[in-house]
Amino acid sequence: MNIITKQRVLAEAKFHRFMAENYIPLNMTAVRILGTDAAVMLAALYEEYTHRKYDGRLEQDSSFRYPVAKAQQVTGLSRIKQTTALKTLEDFGLIVVITTGVPKKRKVKFLFSATNKLMLEKDKLVEKDKKSFEENIKKHNEIQDKIAAWHESHPKTEQMGYVGHGYLGVKEVPHTPEDLPF
Questions:
Q1: Partner residues linked to 97 by β-bridges
Q2: Interval 46-92: pLDDT, tens
Q3: Sign of CA dihedral 4, 7, 13, 21
Q4: What is the DSSP string of 100-112?
């Protein structure tokens, strides 16, 4: 039986508190479709969008400012990786990035009409996973059939072992109840 110590409970509570603060929900399907950096950026942008929407801090056109420094603090992505991730999201049609002013200020606007495209990509992944699973099951069954055929064509044997450099040989082992010596 596993005895849970007080120290373990406290350590686990600390870890849970650590994991529960300052997080962004990362969709694993988005990671597969868009790549890790773009999916992390999408999660951070959407988190910011929902907070601003419910606080009433979105611009008139539903855009919002998302500075490079804040994005780096939230996502851990460098300026270059942010630019690449934002370009991926723009190319996919999920967002529009608007850069204005001097110094440049970045605003982001979600294009929720691209959700259908994202869902189609998700469906393609599901279909691909299903095919891959079926192929793996088929390969597994073929291997099992080959193993079964080999066992049927070869009598059950037992190696007797080695002594020094000489091989002692193989002896027949009974493999059906009728073949048993008793």
A1: 108
A2: 999 999 999 999 999 999 999 999 999 999 999 999 999 999 999 99
A3: negative
A4: ETTTTEEEEEE-G
Distance, in Å, from the CA atom of 95 to the CA atom of 88, rounded to the nearest integer, reads: 9
Distance of CA 60 to the CA centre of its chain: 36
Q: Which two tokens stand for residue 76?
A: 């851990």
Residue 68: which H helix or E strand, with range?
A: helix 68-75
The gap from C-alpha 90 to its chain's centroid, in whole angstroms, comes to 22
Here the tokens at position 150 are 């080999």
Residues 6+ apart with CB under 8 A from 170: 157, 158, 159, 160
pTM value? 0.70
Residue 160 phi, psi (nearest 5): -90, -20
